[in-house]
Amino acid sequence: MKVVLPMPIFMAPAAETQTRKATINLDKAIGYELKHGRKLDPKMDTKKLRRTVSNRLSAQRSRVRKAQHIHDMESKVTELENTITMVRLRVESVKENWRLLQQQNEALERLVQIRLQEANVAQMVAEKNKAELGRLKGQMKDFQIWQFYRQPQPQP
Predict the structure, then answer these.
(1) Residue 33 DSSP label
(2) Which among 10, 6, 112, 13 has a CA at the least distance from the CA of 64?
(3) Could you tell me if 44 and 38 are in contact, meaning their C-beta atoms sit under 8 angstroms apart?
(4) CA nearest to 56, candidates 28, 20, 27, 29
(5) Which residues lie closer than 8 Å to 19 by C-beta, 6 or more apart?
(6) Per the database entry, which stretches of residues form a coiled coil (predicted)?
(7) What predicted TM-score, i.e. pTM, was given to this entire model?
(8) Taking the alpha carbons of 140, 145, 148, 151 in that order, is the dihedral positive or negative?
């Protein structure tokens, strides 16, 4: 984007607008300076006059470039500030999601611990029941043997 500055004193006004780009050829600028100029002696040496006007034109172009550069830098600053704001919001969002995921992970880890404890208890109960079953089977076998011997034996 080009910055349009108000025209310097030594440039002729444009018919359409009071501002225009600071580009003009040296001969027109010299003519304008001589007609409307700032403290220029019309009897001044031509080389010196051309150099003076050329320096003024160069200074004007330099000011335009500087203003354009400042404008570009201000635009860049605004763009970067907007980017920083968006990145900060995104970082906060990611931090919040991270915090929620950590809480969910902690809850799941507690649930896993509870399920492991329940599985251990169930395994101990199963082992206890298995031992009891073995004991009862042994008792039943002993009881059957006892019953067998207790029954009257048939007489031959």
Answers:
(1) H
(2) 6
(3) no
(4) 29
(5) 4, 5, 6, 7
(6) 77-111
(7) 0.49
(8) negative
